[in-house]
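Data availability (excerpt). The following record was deposited with the supplementary files.
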Amino acid sequence: MQRDGEIIGIAPMMLTLRPAWGPLRMRELQFIGADTNVTEIRGPICRPGDLEVVVAALRDYLDARSSEWDWIQWRGLHDFDERSERIRSSLKLEDVSNISNYYLPLPSSWAEFHSALPRNIRESIRKCYRYLDRDNISFEFRAVSSPMEIGSAVEEFLSLHQQRSKAENTVHHLNIFRTNTAKNFLRSYAGATSKAGAIFVFQIKIGGQTVAARLAIKIDDVLYLYYSGYDLNFRKYSIMTTLLTEILKWSFDNGVRVANLSTGTDVSKTRWRPEMISLLNGYQVSSTWRARILYRSMALARRWRTKLRFGSVAVNLGQIGLTCSSIPLEAI
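Predicted structure:
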């Protein structure tokens, strides 16, 4: 979308067909990035103050082409004040949900930031370093971003991320990159963005071995902290707290003003007393009877898939042939 010749909104979208052909083919229009874990935040790309006008223009454009889709999966809409309710009502969203995105505005120095932390966090940080010193363990912190090194750093991350998913007696973390498709996507993305210095693999090395790693994306003065992994042998040292502490210290020396802790609510984020953005998700269903019936069927299948997954049985419903195409979204 443009205003006075300036682009104020971009909507990267794709049309997914399930199955690929036939009278019961379901046509879902969604923002690019079909995996809700690998692509955590999807939605219109615009300034928060322009969201309402961008969504309205996109809605009008897509409504005029409603014969080409059955429903739209809207995601990543900032949930703030009365504008959110207006957006939600104008889109007639169904199956609405929210996800929380936590971030830390960083002051001018680590000392200022550290002194404002809750006492229990300061004590936790102190213990992390003390336990390593007690066992005469020294470490090296690295921020890997060069194209020459990023490939091997990503492979180390993938190995440690897999290890983390096997940790017991703690909050369970999925191995997000368990499939070859997810691995190859990350490898390709890291290789491309490393040329612009936009991706980092932060590491803690002990004895020359990487024992903890976290991916991050840096855009201007914002650092988005993505997934992580660690060697389970170093869990007793709270090595991930040490890594995050080192990342935050690095941020003050490298022009970072906001450290985004990513989506999802867990104590590893909330203990830092971050600020939070609520992101609104929902479905806009076409008014045709065909679309309504198909959407209800898909929603039912989605609920059963969730039940089966959390019942330790993974069944992938709806993957009966899948193709993607696009509706051209020229300037509106």
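Summary of structural features: The chain has a mean pLDDT of 88.
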